[in-house]
Amino acid sequence: MNHEGQTLGCAWYNADPGKREWAVRRQYVVRRGQARQRHPHHPGLWQRAEALGKSILREYADRTVQAHIFLTHFHWDHIQGIPFFLPLYRKGNTFLFHSPLRRGSELQHAIEGQMGNPYFPVEMSAMGAKRHFLDLEEGPVNINGAVISSAPLNHPQGCAGYRIEADGRVFVLATDTEPGSPIHDRAVRDLAQDADLLLYDSQYTPDQLEGEKKGWGHSSWQEGVRIAQERGVKRLVLFHHDPDSDDAFVDSLVAQAREEFPNTMGAAEGLEFCLDTGEIKQVGALPRIGLSAER
Ligand SMILES: [Zn+2]
Ligand SMILES: [Zn+2]
């Protein structure tokens, strides 16, 4: 199989209206800068699935897209953007879906099932792009020079964390994971070793994690800080904010984390990180979809 092309790691979440500053959307895109691209120095960006799809179509114009999609797991908040990702509808494009959690036809069914009647008006078979569903074996895979490893995380029905090494930089995604299981605690630390950027599940407060939210499969800024400190992470980005947390509350969590690990940020809609230069940008307008004033 020809693995030329972009390397994308995506999970999408297409709705939690009303949050502007801090995104609760669980989508992220890792994009590797390549010499033949227009923006070779911007290997990392996070955008909404719909906006990402449109921008890819604009950028590629008449050229075809070949991309890899690595799924963490199949909870709704991580796959709902797929039906709205326009490049999947275009003939000539090719997408390769990867997951260590479901094998063979199970992976295809897990993704296509959400578009089956009566959940969505268009069946996935109507999508014009070629789609391949691949078993992700243990051990790293090399896609066009980007080395991608996965590790099991502690989450109901399972979840995978990813480490992407490319062009001398390391990006690690570890979301939907709860501390307290020694095997998983070790796995997530090994995954995060020396990462330039660790995007980490910080849904709950340390108190919630000890009490009412124990067993829900999520983590806190405090555990993120511990991992970052223990494993030489350069930048920590708190992610998977609780939909019940407002912007001010997320601000307060970030502030607490910064007291212990200064290079901490909160993930927010449209933030773009350049791993090469350390540059951080806010791209695009913040989403206004479904704000209460529009209802
Ligand atoms: Zn989940
Ligand atoms: Zn989730």
Report on this model:
The protein has one domain: Ribonuclease Z/Hydroxyacylglutathione hydrolase-like (Metallo-beta-lactamase, Chain A). Strand 10, helix 4 and strand 11 form a beta-alpha-beta unit. Helix content is 22%, strand content 23%. The structure holds zinc ion (2 copies). One zinc ion binds next to helix 2.
CATH architecture: 4-Layer Sandwich
Distance between the termini: 48 Å
CATH class label: Alpha Beta
Q: Strand order within the widest sheet?
A: 7-8-9-10-11-12-13
In total, the number of domains comes to 1
- Sketch the topology as an H/E string, one letter per element: EEEHEHEHEEEEEHEHHEHEEE
Low-confidence stretches: 1-28, 31-47, 285-295
Q: What do we call the CATH topology?
A: Metallo-beta-lactamase, Chain A
Q: Could you state the CATH homologous superfamily?
A: Ribonuclease Z/Hydroxyacylglutathione hydrolase-like
Helical fraction equals: 10-25%
Sketch the major β-sheet: 7 strands, mixed
List the bound ligands. Answer: zinc ion
Number of helices: 7
What's the pLDDT, averaged over the residues? Answer: 78
Give a count of the beta strands, DSSP E runs of length 2 or more.
Answer: 15
Judged by helices, strands and strand pairing, the structural class is alpha/beta
